[in-house]
Amino acid sequence: MPLTWRSGPWQSGSESEVASPEMSHPAGTERPGDWYSLLRVDPVATTEQISAAVERLSRQANALSITAPERARQLRDQIRTMKRDLLSGAEQRERYDHQLAAQGMNQLAAQGTKEPGIQAGDPTGMPAGQPAPVTPAPPTASPAAPPAPPGWGQPPGSGQPAAWGQPPGWGQPAAWGQAPGQAGSSPQPLSVRAQGLMSRVAQFLQTGWTCSACGFGALPTDKFCPKCGSKIQSGLPDSPASHGHAHEASASPAAPSPAAPSPAAPSPAAPSPAAPAPAHGSPVPSGPVPPGPGAPGRALGAESAFCYKCRSRVEPGDVFCARCGAIRA
Amino acid sequence: MSEPTAFGIDLGTTLSVVAQVNQAGSPVVLPNAEGSPTTPSMVFFDGDTATVGSLARESLATQPELVVQLVKRHMGSPWSFDYKGISYRAEHVSAVILRKLLADAQLLAGPVSQAAVTVPAYFNDPMRIATRRAAELAGIEVLGLLSEPTAAALAFGYARRPAGATGVVVDLGGGTFDVTVMDYDGHDLAVRATGGDYYLGGANFDKVLFDYFVEQFRAAHGLDINDADSLSIDECTQVSHDWLLRATRAKHDLTSGERTTVLLQAAGLLLRVEVGRDTFLARSRPLLDEVTEKIIDVLAAAGVAPKDVNFVLAVGGSTRIPAVRERVQQIFGRPPDTSVRPDEAVALGAALFAAQRQLEQGSALVMEPAARDYLENLTVTDVAAHTLGISAFDASAVSEAGAGTEVSGGRVMVPLLPRNTQLPFDIRQTFYTMRPGEQRIMIPILEGEEADPELCTRIGQVVVDGLPACRPAHQEVLVTMRLDRDGILRVGAADVATGVAATTTIVHAHQQVSADAADLAVRALAVR
Fold it and tell me: Whose CA is closest to B234, among B449, B62, B70?
């Protein structure tokens, strides 16, 4: 039986303390659950950015109360819940982020067993009508996916090698969303490091971005690689001048990147044959990326925190702040 | 230094008007800076600037989420508009509107420091307090709050001077509806009964047409603009407000013509919709029935038959709708009097009321002696629009349960100030404590017509605290209630044995925040 966030062993607090997404997001509402996409902010947005976006949505609910009262009511319910999830303290937001990541991975797993690629508008959390980033196929669907190096992508305690970029349990659809090492066994608590990894992997699978220096999966909004601290030239894939987080795209998906010393090294997101060919400037990595020393798993097992310099959120295991590049204190 | 002038402000749900009494003693409307006698009661928040009026209304089509409209419907409620981290309540937004009205009035009439402000007759106590607070935030000393129908009757009576007449004012504005029955006898204007609905007005008629548009568009293109799967929130907000503006224009067209055409656009699709007055009438029938029902209720409360009514005044822009006039005519058997302009009557009456209050205070108003004489002798008597009382345990329930025991049920609304009581009004009534050793007595103040307190609105409470511990049960508590002539309620309670007393002016919990961030922001905003 798939493990849901509700019964997930990493879920802190009792069930009564945390409302389920089903409870929080009334049927028929837009993209239930993913407040970030509804608010049109990044998952790493600061509290101030989220507050401003919530405020805007609240004004829209006000305006809609005159013309579409039912929709306004639904929106107000959502705003109430998102305030609780995102604006009532770092701990609550972290909890929500984990729930969202788990949800996203469940959805991706369901997709991954059926389709080689994920289409725009699919339940990846992207709002309807907004172009979704080109996402690499799940590695299991890619025959080109190289074997994983030891430790990378493996759940703690799992002796089985996993493919590059796979979240824990990848390749075992029935176990999607489970805590690492849990497939077919009794639930085990997930380490903070693994939580951070899962969250990052889930985000990576939605975006397909990697650091050109170390191959670390990152987000389009990251200005610095959270693992090696390398500066990212441009954050957004649509920008014509963008080099993105990834290597510069080339016509051949197999072309080695200048920053990839080992062509044999596995790519975290090698595009499957079925995946759309990356356009120039696409964030889809064009060649293998070395995991580098320590691999893309987190070196630090500390809890999620905020950057001492810019107050941005720093994910568990991040060494550098993705926004300002400050080393984690 | 300029001479004192009497100003009256009709702070309407959709349109606001300022009037003054000139030196001839005649009330006149002051046009705004754009030259219009009416200013749309809408505010467009744009950075550190708040734009009020027609410019704000135009912004509805492009940035509806930054425009606040129909704010009067939220007076005295916890509603707020959040902008740049500040939560503006209805009184704050109204204060911004008032600032614009004052600034424009000052261009023509010099400094405005005092004014009478009108409120719907059916406004309850917290709503009146919020209105007064809005005026204070805008820097106005409020000479008095006057019910809108009473103001309209004042303007009408000032021009006609009816004697021994019973009149009915039907005030269907942009967002609220009031009906008032009054006696007019020379200098005395006395309200007999009032009633209404603060969620019924022209905006409801606009919505009727808007809903028709939505239906037509869905039928033609299979697209429901209100559906979350059809349009995003941004698109829905923008399209729906554009259509609502078109609905308002169509309503105006249908007031003078039989048919109108509206061009609707959404999601790249176009539709041309023809609306006839018959369609509008058919769809407005439930609203018209509500209007009829309220009028009949108030006539019954006043003990007046329609045939005994000497004049029927139709005020408020929505009384221009032919179907509304027809309904009024059906009820009273005569067409409503529209000799006073429906949009301006209330403000004109408010200016007269302000002049009367200023003369009462000994102000040296300059005006024609005849007008001065009339206003000095004018008396205006209003009524309470709602029954006011307190929640107490029913004595029979207490005796059944036994004295001093815990009674969970048995609470009743004890009316102290019945609806349509003429103001000002005082009442004192004795109640008794239930349990021995009560050191704190909490008296909930209710508003409503039901015996069950749960069905009434709790508008506040009085707490008598610090009583000695060793008191037996059945101690006398004297409750006093006073509703002043502006409709502001003051409630007091005193423990007779100890003399410990408490009083309160009813202010809702969310209104108790004094000088909050929004207050400061309202003063800091540049208003244009």
Answer: B62
